[in-house]
Amino acid sequence: MSPLTVVxxxxxxxxxGVERCTLETARALVAAGHRSIVISSGGRLVEQLVREGSxxxxxxxxxxxxxxxxxxxxxRRLLENIRPDILHARSRMPAWLAWxxxxxxxxxxRPRFITTVHGLHSVxxxxxxxxxxxxxxxxxxxxxxxxxxxYPQCPPERIxxxxxxxxxxxxxxxxxxxxxxxQQWRNDFPELADKTVLALPGxxxxxxxxxxxxxxxxxxxxxxxxxxxxxxxGAEAKKAAYxxxxxxxxxxxxxxDHISFTGHRSDMQDVLSQCDLVFSLSTQAExxxxxxxxxxxxxxxxxxxDRGGVGDILATCYPxxxxxxEDESALLSQVSAWLQAPDVPxxxxxxxxxxxxxxxxxxxxxLAGTDLTTK
Length: 375
Fold this sequence. Notes:
Blueprint: E1 5-9, H1 17-31, E2 35-40, H2 46-51, E3 55-58, H3 72-82, E4 86-89, H4 92-103, E5 112-117, E6 135-138, H5 141-150, E7 159-161, H6 179-188, E8 196-201, H7 210-220, E9 227-232, H8 240-252, E10 259-263, H9 268-273, E11 277-280, H10 290-297, E12 302-305, H11 308-317, E13 322-323, H12 328-340, H13 353-368
Parallel strand pairs: 1-2, 1-4, 2-3, 4-5, 5-6, 6-7, 8-9, 8-11, 9-10, 11-12, 12-13
Helix pairs in contact: 1-13, 3-4, 7-12, 10-11
């Protein structure tokens, strides 16, 4: 089969699981000899995308506003000029713009329209756009159940379960950073020396459960004075106030000597390698839980609420880490038990990035040779 032209669209290329999946799929397309194009509002990851062989087209597809509908006609003209084989939408607003542009194109020549459900969004007509794809990708079993439970209008045969994954060469089991990196880390965070580091990675948003993490550290620090909490992640500009609020809470609760902030990091394999126990405490079920899998790939134990994609990963790779959702007493008990008898997850071949990419490209190839239409 001749090389494909694939257009992926998402709000922006800043950071996060959707962005990572987009870049990973783009990289796989280029490696397989296909043309890879991403349409977004831009961001810090554009440089990497282009460096790895894809094209980026800047279009304001991020803003949740009726004014965004002004982009439908330009997007349609763009697609008619590019003539892609596949149009893959990964988020609601770009998906609406893509679908509105796509449905007015010539049925005989328009691309196949695919969506990936990356979030367990509130069930609504606005969110329903994510199941309008001719093929709908579910990135985890949790997402597949969410679609079938909430959108019965989406035929089961249209749903394709393609679990997300992590590259074991990027997050190798037992990884150790370079001596130069380690020295810089020790210079930047001398307070972590000889400590048992408990880490909560993720962007600084209220949904990540930082308040639960702070209460956990406060409850543990007397009995286990060797622990130190590490909050790994930065805040987008619109979340700057929350970041300041979080730091103020650390001071107010007397945890200033027990909590450190790393800010945004692009070296997560190195950072996680220096942590002893990693947490996932999001207040809502996660669709997948990429950071959980990255830590486990490195051989680091993870404790998290037993729900959503995090629960799926822990059940497969580290069952000891499953905690009854929102039960902070159970969390404290399990962490205390782990501190007294620590262990690590065994190596695992579940949730491989190569499998995700192979199955996604196979779906592209399959659809490119068919004449499907969304009813």
